[in-house]
Design brief:
The strands form 4 sheets. A 7-stranded mixed sheet has the order 13-14-16-15-17-19-18, with helices on both faces. The protein has 8 helices and 19 strands. It is globular. With about 400 residues, the chain is an alpha+beta fold.
Length: about 400
């Protein structure tokens, strides 16, 4: 939808309407009414075969530099986590490289944000996107420059590759540390986190060398490539939430989880971290397995040690705010963290990063972003280097 509209405060000025598109990797928006640049009406599309929606990512073109544009996501109140819009600010970019926060407001019905155009084209998103192109380049760099092995390749519902990378030789007696990311495809900070892990492995500093002397790392940088490509929030191409599929995965409906579980059974697991993003809580935190039937004091101590060490390592982590703890025996065993922790009797954590900001160390310009997610990935490896000898 396009056209022009005379601005009500100045009937002599006719403002051209922008062009709005989302027909690209991770794009998601529906144009409702574009005639007034100061009242651009949009809506977020739900995941395919699922009612979930929250992720948005669109391009605005034919902008007049210096002119004000105001965007309204009119169905924000119907989104999967509608309380999450309070205190949230959208991100924008002129080049898809540098992203910054745009002041945003939520009135209980719609999310609104606006700015003076800094270029003739601008992109807007729920969080700094991690593209499939960048993913492919990351996998190539991991193999050709960081010394990781392409151990196995799974396939998504739509046939996209799911690489499993290993750093290490698989020698007997070494600890097997698993990190996966982006089971929920709209949580792009999770793959930024994995890029930071691979960056640190490529740097191969003395702490990483000490870690690799006793442990192998198994990495799945993107568990849900179909959902990420289609601009989904929670589900794969068949409308399934992968992080609710760890008790009944199948090659037909959740091949992504099915593949990783097969590889875990083949190689073993001594530690598991599942990287996610949380829409509502403005902090970085972990959730663990305290509700599992097989939860033990040994696992509880490992969880505490991980949190203590990461708090000491970086201000971009804290252990005060997070999810309500499960009661003993009441864990949701369909979640990856709980399922893997129980199956392998190992330290198993969900690592959550915010869509908003980490309020314990805020950044008004970027909020939580890709760079901070990546830096956290490197910091987690420092913690694992300290903990690996004592995981069993």
């Amino acid at each position: 939808m396009g056209g022009t509209r005379t601005h009500p405060q100045d009937p002599t000025v006719t403002r051209p309407a922008p062009l709005i598109s989302a027909d690209f990797d991770s794009g998601n928006i529906e144009a409702i009414d574009l005639r007034d640049p100061l009242d651009i009406q949009l809506a977020i599309r739900p995941d395919r075969q699922s009612p979930h929606f929250q992720w948005f990512h669109f391009k605005a073109a034919e902008l007049q530099v210096g002119q004000r544009y105001e965007f309204t996501l009119q169905n924000a109140a119907q989104s999967s986590y509608n309380n999450a819009w309070h205190g949230y600010h959208a991100v924008a970019s002129c080049d898809q490289q540098t992203w910054f926060r745009v002041p945003s407001t939520f009135d209980g019905q719609a999310l609104r944000f606006g700015l003076d155009a800094q270029g003739s084209e601008m992109w807007f998103a729920y969080f700094e996107p991690y593209s499939r192109q960048r993913h492919d380049a990351l996998i190539n760099r991991a193999i050709t420059q960081a010394g990781l092995q392409l151990l196995a390749v799974g396939q998504s519902c739509e046939g996209r590759e799911i690489p499993l990378l290993r750093k290490g030789d698989g020698a007997p007696g070494k600890r097997r540390l698993w990190l996966i990311a982006q089971q929920h495809p709209g949580e792009h900070m999770a793959q930024w986190f994995m890029e930071g892990v691979i960056d640190r492995l490529q740097a191969n500093d003395p702490q990483i060398q000490a870690l690799l002397a006793v442990a192998d790392l198994y990495l799945v940088p993107n568990m849900n490539p179909d959902g990420a490509f289609h601009g989904h929030l929670r589900t794969n191409a068949r409308g399934r939430d992968l992080n609710r599929a760890w008790q009944d995965s199948s090659a037909e409906y959740t091949p992504e989880v099915f593949f990783v579980q097969q590889q875990m059974d083949k190689h073993g697991v001594d530690l598991f971290i599942d990287a996610h993003g949380d829409e509502e809580i403005p902090y970085v935190f972990t959730a663990a397995c305290e509700g599992n039937p097989g939860y033990t004091p040994r696992i509880a101590q490992l969880e505490q040690t991980f949190r203590d060490l990461l708090c000491d390592r970086t201000a971009d982590f804290q252990a005060v705010h997070g999810y309500t703890r499960d009661k003993p025996g009441e864990a949701n065993m369909t979640l990856a963290c709980n399922s893997v922790g129980e199956r392998f009797d190992c330290l198993s954590l969900t690592l959550e990063m915010p869509f908003k900001d980490h309020d314990a160390a805020p950044d008004a310009l970027t909020g939580w972003n890709g760079q901070r997610s990546a830096r956290l990935g490197g910091d987690v490896l420092s913690v694992l280097a300290q903990m690996a000898p004592n995981l069993r």
